[in-house]
Design goal:
heterodimer, A: alpha/beta, Rossmann fold, 6-stranded mixed β-sheet, 4-stranded antiparallel β-sheet, 8 helices, 10 strands, disordered C terminus, B: mainly alpha, Arc Repressor Mutant, subunit A, 2 domains, 3-stranded antiparallel β-sheet, 3 strands, 59% helix, elongated
């Protein structure tokens, strides 16, 4: 893996990413989300608090219906909590209007979904540049940033391919590039490896991990423990509540015990 | 792990001396199964006695060389084409949970959570090892990486099974099933008496310690 780490280090850095490791880039404070009212009300999230720091990957694990995808959509400003507050880079987004949230989202957050969500009529580089262009950045500047982002995920040579002409793993790497393009530095990934074989899925996680190590941050929603193990912290959700948390620690000689 | 078959498979590549066999084996298996010299030579003696290898002189340094025989080659092919059976006799964790789920007064959810913490930490550590391992692919790097994968998949399966247990237990509790099974008031009429032969009444007062002695 040292070889790929080297090539990533040699690639152009993502512009405007600061490296203050302790900086909290995303925070959920006592966030609840319920749907419906009265007897039929369903609580999808119940008083969930979470802090994400720069350079950190947090995995959210839980069975279907545990609230993990709801957590991600609220963290990314795609949905509003019923109560509680969400901060992105120190700005409370829960009080903002829809337009302002959308603008903040385009500038700061990138989503990676299981089914890639690339625009099929746009090439890889056009897909990556799209959020910047929507933000009013000149096509030329957006393309330049998109190029850096594609280079960071090792896909520059496929910049002019259309999604249909790429493998699943390549498409997912394009969506990671789109998630980190420009000033975007928070990756919100919902089962990003769900549609990929185990080896390709691992390479996508490895790529995501590299981008986070070089100054981004991310939340990874997964039901797969092997994938969650790429994270620094693993949070377990059950019925909308955080029930447990595992932090990375170092167990020396883990394989020697099997001898 | 069959050391015998492994060493024979290496000898199938050409004559080797004892220490060399150990080196080749450990290099290819990432040191996951350490071998001592005594083990190697006793294995070679058994292979020789079985007619699967034979002594073939010495190398330039005077080290005794061994060569595989045609019967040995057949043995290697047979070993490689025979599946490794799944060992179902021992699964300490499964046995522990099976016991704990039926014993009254045990917080089984806590037992599962503790185990999952440990398993996730192991997964994180294995993933870190894998991330740090070389991506340059030759057979040795790939072999080491596949060994790590084997551990990763095994621990992942354990976590999935723990989740499964947790859900099944939660469902049973939601359905008001009483999982706890107290000590049987009418235990088997066999067991080691503490002092003098006990009356059958004393059996019913058996303490958990006494129960330990029941065979």
């Amino acid at each position: 893996m040292s070889g790929s780490a080297h090539s990533a280090a040699n690639a152009q850095p993502i512009p405007a990413v600061r490296h203050d490791r302790d900086e909290i880039v995303l925070e959920l404070s006592s966030v609840s989300r319920s749907y419906g009212t009265g007897d039929t009300a369903v609580t999808a999230l119940d008083e969930v608090s979470l802090q994400l720091r720069r350079g950190e990957l947090v995995a959210i694990m839980g069975t279907s219906g545990s609230g993990k995808s709801t957590l991600l959509t609220i963290a990314g400003g795609l949905d509003r909590p019923t109560s509680g507050r969400v901060f992105v880079n120190g700005t409370q987004i829960t009080g903002l209007g829809a337009k302002k949230i959308a603008a903040l989202r385009r500038k700061t957050l990138g989503f990676v979904f299981q089914d890639y969500n690339l625009v099929p009529v746009l090439t890889a580089i056009e897909n990556v540049a799209l959020p910047l262009e929507l933000d009013g950045i000149s096509a030329r500047a957006a393309r330049r940033s998109a190029k850096y982002a594609l280079e960071a995920v090792g896909l520059l040579e496929l910049a002019n391919r259309y999604p249909d002409d790429m493998s699943g793993g390549q498409q997912q790497r394009v969506s990671i590039a789109r998630a980190i393009v420009g000033d975007r530095s928070i990756i919100l990934a919902d089962e990003p490896t769900g549609a990929l074989d185990s080896v390709t899925g691992e390479s996508v996680l490895s790529m995501m991990r590299q981008r986070i190590d070089s100054g981004a941050a991310g939340i990874l929603v997964t039901h797969d423990a092997r994938h969650a193990a790429w994270a620094d912290r693993i949070i377990y959700l059950r019925d909308g509540r955080i029930t447990d948390e595992t932090r990375a620690n170092t167990l020396d000689g883990i394989l020697a015990t099997g001898a | 792990m069959s050391i015998r078959d492994s060493l024979l498979a290496i000898l199938d590549q050409g004559p080797c001396y004892g220490y060399q066999l150990g080196y080749e084996f450990e290099m290819r298996t990432g040191g996951s199964v350490p071998l001592n010299t005594g083990q190697i030579y006793s294995t070679l003696e058994r292979l020789d006695a079985a007619g699967l290898i034979q002594s073939s002189g010495a190398d330039d340094e005077g080290r005794a060389l061994y060569t595989i025989t045609p019967a040995g080659r057949e043995d290697v092919q047979s070993w490689l084409s025979t599946p490794v059976p799944h060992d179902m006799r021992r699964n300490e964790l499964a046995t522990k949970l099976a016991l704990a789920v039926s014993l009254p007064g045990i917080d089984i959810a806590h037992v599962i959570q503790t185990q999952r913490h440990a398993a996730m930490n192991t997964l994180q550590e294995l993933t870190r090892l894998k991330r740090n391992s070389s991506s340059s692919v030759d057979g040795l790097d790939l072999g080491w990486s596949l060994l790590l994968d084997a551990h990763l998949f095994e621990v992942e399966a354990e976590v999935r099974w723990l989740d499964h247990c947790e859900t099944r237990i939660a469902r049973a509790i939601a359905e008001n099933v009483d999982l706890s099974v107290p000590l049987n008031p009418d235990p088997p009429k066999r067991g080691r008496p503490t002092r003098a032969p006990a009356s059958s009444a004393s059996h019913t007062n058996a303490t958990p310690k006494g129960a330990d002695n029941v065979r």
